[in-house]
Write a structure and sequence with these properties.
The complex is a heterodimer of chains A (133) and B (340). Chain A is an alpha+beta fold and 133 residues long. In chain A, 38% of the residues lie in helices and 32% in strands. Chain A has a single domain, classed as Histidine kinase-like ATPase, C-terminal domain (Heat Shock Protein 90). In chain A, strand 4 and strand 5 form a beta hairpin. In chain A, helix 1 packs antiparallel against helix 2. Chain A is globular. Chain B is an alpha+beta fold. Chain B folds into two domains: 94 residues, KaiA/RbsU domain (Methyltransferase, Methionine Synthase (B12-binding Domains), Chain A, domain 1, Orthogonal Bundle), CATH 1.10.1240; 221 residues, Phosphatase 2c, domain 1 (4-Layer Sandwich). Chain B has a five-stranded antiparallel sheet with strand order 1-12-9-6-7. Chain B has a five-stranded antiparallel sheet with strand order 2-3-4-5-8. A two-stranded antiparallel sheet of chain B has the order 10-11. The longest helix of chain B has 49 residues. Chain B is elongated. The chains are: A alpha+beta (133), B alpha+beta (340). At the A-B interface, helix 2 and helix 4 of A face helix 3 and helix 4 of B.
Chain lengths: 133, 340
């Protein structure tokens, strides 16, 4: 069983806590500074989405190992309104908050693996992993 | 775009950066700065995100100045963090750019298809000298024209879809198919427009309107029979009077109401007379002074009417294009039929 730590996201300060958690773990695992910054940015985006659109949720960070590769997994879950059209939010240029708001495609590009699962009125789960190169 | 730059090329880029930076720090020369600019072009070509460059800069600085102050080092970490945001936007930009290229090539294919579908060479018809020019403002043409020679008469249609671009072009393709089947059955212009109106009313989005002029030229009687559905009136040039008249016809635009009846008009065409049909892209040419007056278009036609019909329309188009500084705002179609 791998180690998992979670941060509840309810307000903007929690976004900072989630970032901190992710950065510490990325540093511990031996990610370089650029990848640390990328992972943190991804976490930041995911936590911000929870804060803006679901109101409440959590971000969990997990160290993972698979076929000799070490990596970091972000699991962002909420019981918010869910996403009606996932294909649309995964399209570049689509945002509801303007600018770099719901940049899910951006998060996907910052990480190595990305999956999203959402149902309306149930909630959303996003899992993203980055491997140490 | 994945961050899959391999470490080998990464190292080479870093060494190159180190060389350029060292030269600059030593000489502070414009040459070194110019190399820096070229280097950045290379980075962009290789789609290196900005945070990677900052990271390289930090590494190089640490190699060059091992006893760099902690604060300075920290400031680079801060810069790197900020640059990740730019990298985020940069990657989105890259991806949007490639999607745009893809869309553009799709539109290009559609536009070619449309152009082939609708516009052929101007027809040849005994006793008439015909010239046609039709130029879209954007890639897709919302103007439509068609000639049909049934062996006895020459029928002609010119239409303008209110609205531009792809939606207009799509409804135009529909018009083309409707016309193909309708014009075989009815040669009376007013009846054709009435039928077409029903098709348009049923199949086209209510926010879209189509204007059309439809005419049939009977070479035995030397008469033009015509009707119009709210289309920009053409001109009729009478050689005998040496005067241009509006080719007037009244009628509601297509697609507004289910049942509309149109009136048929007729005009005797004598040798040297001309029938001039146009889309509102011609009369709505806008210059610094405002819209071009119909009178100015008549003058342009008059200046060129000694030429064969095709050269005449080409010439008039060129003059109008020049007046608008070669920037078309609306699709442009001009047809001239001269009885020889």
């Amino acid at each position: 069983m791998s180690i998992q730590s979670c941060v509840e996201v309810r307000n903007e300060w929690d976004i900072v806590s989630a970032r901190q958690l992710g950065r510490n773990m990325a540093k511990e695992l031996g990610f370089g500074t650029v990848d640390q910054a990328r992972i943190t940015t991804a976490i930041s985006e995911l936590a911000r989405n929870i804060y803006l659109y679901a109101g409440h949720g959590k971000v969990c960070i997990e160290a993972v190992e698979e076929m000799g590769k070490k990596g970091l997994k972000i699991i962002a879950t909420d019981k918010g309104p869910g996403i009606r059209d996932i294909r649309k939010v995964m399209e570049d240029g689509y945002t509801t908050s303007g600018g770099l708001g719901a940049g899910l495609p951006g998060v996907k590009r910052l990480m190595d693996e990305f999956s999203i699962d959402s149902s309306v009125n149930v909630g959303t789960e996003i899992i993203a992993t980055k491997w140490i190169r | 775009m994945k961050n899959n730059s391999n470490p080998g090329s990464n190292n080479r880029t870093k060494e190159r950066y180190k060389t350029i930076l060292t030269t600059y720090l030593k000489e502070k020369s414009e040459t070194a700065l110019y190399r820096g600019q070229q280097f950045s072009r290379k980075l962009i070509e290789q789609q290196i995100p900005p945070e990677d460059l900052v990271s390289q800069h930090v590494q190089v600085m640490q190699e060059l100045f091992p006893d760099m102050s902690e604060k300075l080092k920290d400031s680079f970490d801060f810069l790197l963090e900020v640059m990740v945001g730019y990298g985020f936007a940069y990657r989105e930009h890259q991806s949007l750019k490639s999607r745009q290229r893809q869309l553009e090539s799709e539109i290009e294919v559609a536009a070619t298809m449309q152009q082939n579908l609708i516009l052929g060479d101007p027809p040849t018809f005994d006793g008439l000298d015909i010239g046609v020019i039709s130029v879209p403002a954007k890639k897709m043409n919302g103007d439509y024209y068609n000639f049909m020679n049934d062996g006895a008469n020459l029928s002609m249609a010119i239409a303008d879809i209110i609205g531009k671009g792809i939606p207009a072009a799509m409804s135009m393709s529909m018009i083309k198919y409707a016309m193909d089947s309708l014009s075989q059955h009815c040669i009376k212009p007013n009846l054709l427009l009435e039928n077409l109106n029903r098709v348009v009313e049923q199949n086209v989005n209510p926010s879209m309107f189509i204007t059309m002029f439809y005419g049939v030229y009977d070479p035995t009687k030397h008469k033009l029979f015509y009707s119009s559905a709210g289309h920009e009136p053409g001109f009729f040039y009478s050689k005998k009077e040496d005067k241009f008249h509006d080719l007037f016809a009244k009628g509601l635009v297509l697609g507004v109401s289910k049942t509309v009846s149109y009136k048929e008009f007729e005009k005797k065409v004598e040798p040297g007379d001309m029938i001039i049909l146009l889309s509102d892209g011609v009369t709505e040419c806008r210059t610094e002074k405002g819209f071009i007056e119909r009178q100015e278009i008549i003058e342009l036609i008059r200046e060129n009417m000694h030429l064969p019909a095709q050269q005449m329309v080409d010439r008039v188009f060129y003059e109008l294009e020049k007046l608008q500084e070669f920037e078309l705002r609306d699709d442009f179609t001009l047809i001239v039929l001269k009885r020889v």
